[in-house]
Structure prediction request, 268 residues.
Amino acid sequence: MSFSPIHIYILPLAALLAKSSGCVSVHQMYTNDRDFGIQIKGETIGEAWLSMVEAILKKGEAGFDEGRRRRALQNIRLKVSKQESDDSILNEYANKNCIEHMKKLVFESHEMFDFDIIPSFSPGAKSYHQRMVEGKMMDFVVKRLSYIPESKKAVIVFPTYEDYKQVLSNQKDDYLPCLVTFQTRLLGKENYYLQNNIFFMRSCDAFQKAPGNLVTMAMLSEKIAERLTKNLKKKVKLGSLDGLITDAHIYEETIKDAEAAVSAAKRN
Prediction:
């Protein structure tokens, strides 16, 4: 027996955003497919973030995550049309301190720390930045695509076998990177390359940490594109950011703040 997909369309938050935010009005929505679940499409990272937060608030299942109450959705597909790290929606409605914390973990700090309102692990694990430095991951991506632009191997992988040992050694105070992979693909065009980026997240705190995740992924994309443009001697333009999030959630302690952010965006 076959079933037709169920599609739930949400009127564009972007269209409802304040003129004060200066955002371009576009059609934005999430769909709920019977077989594939929630799929989110946004023109910008900010629009996609607001859609994800609203989808979790409206469609998320209540439950527990290691004793904490939360609402969550499973296997979210999220796609952003334009990768721009400086996003007016995130600047206005997301927690700026959380975004700065994530920037530090990806580009500065050697050590991981949890800026969750209720931290779930102790500091000490290697940060995203340290993993990229030790593995020369960005250099690998740039060198690979400079030599073979169509390569499918330009992937940054954050967890290692060392994380498995650490998790099992203390399962009440453990850390495993939420962002598992970040891939860069180049599509050759007549006078330029189009760079699309694909990510996989095993888990995502949609209100506290997703804004920083999206900003830093866009920043990584921008840095890679800049270096590739120099190496390939041809313009590399940023395309889409496309990913799968296994578990996207909002913890009970931040649900009111998440609701307030969505309401403020609609009022404006």
User: Anything to note?
Assistant: The longest helix spans residues 210-232. The chain has a mean pLDDT of 90. The two ends are 45 Å apart (CA to CA).
